[in-house]
Amino acid sequence: MRKLIIAACAATLLAAPLAAQAQDGNRGSAAERARNAVAEDIEKNWVRPTAEEREVVTSHTMQAHGKTLRYKATAGTLTVRTDAGQPTSSVFYVAYTLDGQPLGTRPITYMFNGGPGSPTMWLHMGAFGPTRVATDDPVVERPGPLRLTSNDMTLLDKTDLVFIDMVGAGYSRPLGDAPTSAYWGVDGDADMFARFILRYTTKYNRWNSPKFVLGESYGTLRAGALAYQLENRGMSLNGVILLSSIMNYGVRQPGYPQNFVSLLPTYAATAWYHNAINRDGVSLEDHVQRAREFAAGPYQTALNKGHNISDQEKAQIAQQMSTLIGIDANFINAANLRVELSPFRKELLRDRRQTVGRLDSRYLGIDASQVTGAPEEDPASSAVTGAYYGMFQDYIANTLNYRTDLEYRQSARGLPGFDWNWSHRPPVGGPQTTPNTAIDLATVMRRNPHLKVLALNGYYDAATPFFGTEYDLNQMMLEPHLRKNVEFTYYEGGHMMYTSREPLEQLYRDLAKYYDETSNGGVR
């Protein structure tokens, strides 16, 4: 039946040419060949969301890190099933495997973005894949023609790479009659990713490979729960990499002082970058360290006093904050020392009629009105989204030869039934209404003392501030011998620090060292 449908599609596509050529036998023969070619192309390359697993494999060569890398790219879908074998989702992925390497022992990294709701287009096309959207300075990218370059900072020399789209995002789709809770919620989503990784590992014989997961943003929260689910199902990881982390949503709820404490060093870094304070020869790192010490000391103490703080102490704290973050002390005082992110983004450069970004506070925006209390948009997001989305569409179809009639969805949000379930059942303690998967990660580390965690942080990331990452991971309450397995690195970039060339180069160096120390793998 499927081939009949394909033939019908091909016939429809060629109906007009065939009518014109019907009077000429030779032309008819050419048309027949053309029709067969179209049908063959559809059969081979055009895939639909069914339980049938499909893949398109292409071969490539590139230069990176002083080496010639020959590799295969596999774009395809795997079917996630329940324990009873019922399909719940068709999950799209792109995998890159280096030629001439023993697959059984070569490191492999499973990667995903966050949202929740995002496909893994950003990590794929901006950071670690073999090609990269050419961005650098924090400015708005021009529309087409766009620039896609060979990524000489790819991680492919150290590890094979598997980029996974969550259900409802990219080309991943639900299947069958499974409830949306099977994949649209903290625990259902982690279960889906665990089942995908187990399926991929088995299908491609990677059980003996050093195995890593790398998540960005909400993907770091997923990584904590996922690491535990994999450990519980017999897969011990070598490493968990957290890029722009947010693992504990609980302390980020309204009314909790910790969120203001976490944001203050990022505010300070932002003010330093935009010359909104008197730098007086102080480096970014030194200014951020001053902000850390103030935030964890006098500022947190003042916030904990609530409305019982004295007017004198409140004024002193406001003045100290003003020196660090570039906002007028009277504004800070009027906000009861609790400067929300949106007002900060609007207020910092109000005299210049500019706003600053959320994902990356180096980016600048211009609002229609300077009066409103919140920026109209995040310029850090709108500056690069068109370039990434456009180049991915071109790359996947024309370089990787993966063609489909499905829409590549920028987000699962907005789909029927998308109502994220934020509850979480951690391995220890009671159920959570707001998730903290650092608990899951800590449990895994106690079971598997060889697991190494690397947290990658941008100084200008106001969406998942670096000081918040430090807080979340420092609350795992690890024994001294396990604390050395957690490492932090920092970059002069934002949420996606890899959009700038210099942080990307540093990112590669840090990760190359991490892989060498953790897996003893990679190309030698």
Automatic annotation (TrEMBL):
<keyword id="KW-0732">Signal</keyword>
<protein>
    <submittedName>
        <fullName>S10 family peptidase</fullName>
    </submittedName>
</protein>
<dbReference type="InterPro" id="IPR001563">
    <property type="entry name" value="Peptidase_S10"/>
</dbReference>
<dbReference type="InterPro" id="IPR029058">
    <property type="entry name" value="AB_hydrolase_fold"/>
</dbReference>
<dbReference type="Pfam" id="PF00450">
    <property type="entry name" value="Peptidase_S10"/>
</dbReference>
<feature type="signal peptide">
    <location>
        <begin position="1"/>
        <end position="22"/>
    </location>
</feature>
